[in-house]
Specification:
Blueprint lengths: L7 E4 L9 H17 L2 E6 L9 H14 L8 E2 L4 H13 L3 E4 L3 H14 L22 E4 L6 E6 L3 E6 L7 E3 L7 H11 L4 E5 L3 H14 L5 E5 L2 E2 L15 H6 L4 H9 L13 H7 L10 E2 L2 H14 L2 H14 L7 H15 L5 H7 L13 H6 L2 H14 L7 H15 L7 H9 L7 H8 L1 H12 L3
Parallel strand pairs: 1-2, 2-3, 9-10, 11-12
Antiparallel strand pairs: 4-5, 5-8, 6-7
Helix pairs in contact: 1-9, 3-5, 5-6, 8-10, 11-12, 11-13, 12-18, 15-19, 16-18, 17-18
Length: about 475
Amino acid sequence: MADPRTVVTRFAPSPTGFLHIGNARTALFNWLYARHTGGKFLLRIEDTDRARSTDAAIQAIFDGLRWLGLDWDGDAVFQFSRMDTHAREANRLLDEGKAYRCYMTGEELEAERARARSEGGRVESPWRDRDWREAPAGRPFAVRFRAPRAGETVIRDIVQGEVRIPNTQLDDMVLLRSDGTPTYMLSVVVDDHDMGVTHVVRGDDHLTNAARQMQLIEALGWSVPVYAHIALIHGPDGAKLSKRHGALGVDWYRDQGYLPAAMRNYLARLGWGHGDDEIFTTEQAIAWFDIADLGKSPSRLDFEKMRSVNAHYLRAMPAQDALAALEEFATAHGHAAFNETQRARIAGMLDALRERASTLADLLDQAAFLLTDEVIVPDDAAAAVLTEEARARLGALADALADVEPWTAESLEAAVKAHLKDQGLKLGAVGPAIRACLVGRTASPSLFAVLGGVGRETALMRLRAAARPA
């Protein structure tokens, strides 16, 4: 058990798929509160659904949390490995008369459920007050909790306030199935107690679960944790976040080139805030965060705002860190590690490239013309400006620039303008064609920065290659 003075939070995902963006925010809030209070943030893998739990999903949870920078304290707890402990507590309740053996057959249970649905009541087991010794010999049984019939269960929730649920709405939940395996509700209660969890921060879709779990906790003679049930994240249209909104998994954001620090900042603002602060460091978030400040209303996922926050972080990164992050992203997506020439080119143009990028994927795309010494194949819009007349002008320009020293944006700008003046031309007469052959697009950073950035040999080669008849 943890020191009662220590705040202990937990993140307890089921490993049945990717790490959901909503779950990532829940993990973040738990992590922030633990770090704010100097407490502990624990990780529990709720893998009791053996048919759906997979090793790949467990790894996705680990990878997602590590990518987000949410480090947990101690080893992850695997719920399935604790089944015997869960069952022992259920049998203690059975011995104390707080649970009972239910011998209902599958057909009887389904009939009772149909009755409860039609009459608006709850499932009632005839074995609640019946002597189990009357059951047919050898018939399997489930263990059900003997829930209170009268009164109400009151949840004093940090976020939702006081929530009252009539006990008539809460049936006798199953603790052990007929094969002896524990149910989710029992396992959660036992694990939270044994892990010393003091604060349960989770989605408000668990409010009814909280009432059931409180009853069970009190029956076991344990202390009820502090509850904070947070509103779920909705899609841009205000509907509950679902597959139709896309981008549900944390891995998608990583693969799109979002930065962990930016994601922490953005997700923290979905349901929590500190005044009007939109951009803040993780250290500031830890210092400011309190679950009492969590909002009660759902938040909307805003992809444009997320890109904006990420763009801020991308531009604010130290150049060396940004270059390292870009190279790591590039190699993760099948690119070879940068060579010294490529690294130097990108470093020289990094600030200009970052101004046009919101994610690492954007930045890599912007830098593509610097990562090859080959002729660039222009896209359709760029190809359209490479008319016969424009190509002829590129050839003359290449000759005029061949001996420019030093090969810098400033020197090249002076040389290009001098050449165009001699030819009686404006920059607009040749600028789009220069950009088309050097970058392959109609938009790029400063034309002279691009000329300088690709280097003398590559720039002249591309200009001359474009000058040849199509």
